[in-house]
Amino acid sequence: MKLEGLIAAVHTPMDDDYSVDYEIVARQAEHLVKGGVSGAFVTGTTGECHSLTTEERLDLFNAWGQTEIAAN
Fold first, then answer.
1. How far is CA 41 from CA 17, 47, 64, 67, in A?
2. What is the pLDDT of residue 20?
3. DSSP secondary structure letter of residue 20
4. At what angle do helices 54-65 and 24-34 cross, to 10 degrees?
5. Which helix (H) or strand (E) holds 65?
6. Taking the CA of residue 42 as centre, how many other CA atoms within 13 Å lie in the half-sphere pointing to its CB?
7. Is 9 helix (H, G, I), strand (E, B) or coil?
8. Residue 64 contacts residue 44 (beta carbons within 8 Å)
9. Mean pLDDT across the chain, nearest whole number?
């Protein structure tokens, strides 16, 4: 796999109770694709990685994996 183009470090969307809002991921991905972004760096330094459980991180990866940006 060859990475090309802009890879955005995305934030993790959360509700008021700090639970991950997985439904927002598709909108985030759509916005990035419209802006010409090629990929997303999920749970990086801006992604709240250390405050998420392993299950939340895996669910977040799966949510991003089902988006248009993952198909590029």
1. 24, 9, 10, 13
2. 95
3. B
4. 50
5. helix 54-65
6. 22
7. strand
8. no
9. 90
